[in-house]
Design goal:
heterodimer; A: about 120 residues; mainly beta; seven-stranded mixed β-sheet; four-stranded antiparallel β-sheet; B: about 110 residues; six-stranded mixed β-sheet; five-stranded antiparallel β-sheet
Chain lengths: ~120, ~110
């Protein structure tokens, strides 16, 4: 249980183009999904929190117009990197929280396998 | 601001040599502390959730413990397949965000 998928697993694009990454919860419904970025040998940095049917909440320093997030259903969130530049090259990972989790208990997050983006 | 510090940064052990990884944390109100395993080029894999001081959880060769200031991940008689980066994260009652440490890169030598 608690499986999260991402597509594509890797992508190479040219500078100035846009890239869309999909994150799906396969066996549970996710009210909330999270998008992280990870540079080599560094830990995960939260970029934004995505709630189904509402606008995403971005962390300080993350450009909302550059990283467009859409959470259209309880099982799908997408991250679009617009006008990509080489400095956007990174490992992007999503996670999801089961909608049934709540109250005072910890909210476990289940992670996808990640998407390696290379901008040339 | 929530903070998580993991030590050591890297650890090399012989197969069968037991050891512990440390996660020290400061958080305004701990909802939960999480341990994840991450293999190179992959997303983190959930291992444990702890939320009460004194709590312990076990899974195969791993045991996680929690105090009010830190958590330990004990690995008993490790095997080469236990080689990975182990991440610790905390969540406070204010929101659902996870604050991650920088991880411990564990290498088990056959």
């Amino acid at each position: 249980g608690a499986v999260v998928s991402q597509h594509p697993s890797w992508v190479i694009c040219k500078s100035g183009t846009s890239v869309k990454i999909e994150c799906r919860s396969l066996d549970f419904q996710a009210t909330t999904m999270f998008w992280y970025r990870q540079f080599p040998k560094q830990s995960l940095m939260l970029m934004a929190t995505s709630n189904e049917g509402s606008k995403a909440t971005y962390e300080q320093g993350v450009e909302k117009d550059k990283f467009l997030i859409n959470h259209a259903s309880l099982t799908l969130s997408t991250l679009t990197v617009t006008s990509a530049h080489p400095e956007d090259s990174s490992f992007y990972i999503c996670s999801a929280r089961d909608r049934l989790a709540g109250g005072l208990v910890p909210y476990e997050q289940y992670f996808g396998p990640g998407t390696r983006l290379t901008v040339t | 601001e929530d903070q998580v510090t993991q030590s050591p940064e890297a650890l090399r052990l012989q197969e069968g040599e037991s050891s512990s990884l440390n996660c020290s944390y400061t958080v305004s109100g701990l909802r939960g502390l999480f341990w994840y395993r991450q293999d190179p080029g992959k997303g983190p894999e959930f291992l444990f959730t702890l939320y009460s001081a004194g709590e312990e959880k076990e899974k195969e060769r791993l045991k996680a413990t929690l105090t009010k200031k830190e958590s330990f991940l004990h690995i008993t008689a490790p095997k080469p397949e236990d080689s990975a980066t182990y991440l610790c994260a905390v969540q406070n009652f204010g929101n659902e965000k996870l604050t991650f440490g920088t991880g411990t890169r564990l290498t088990i030598i056959p």
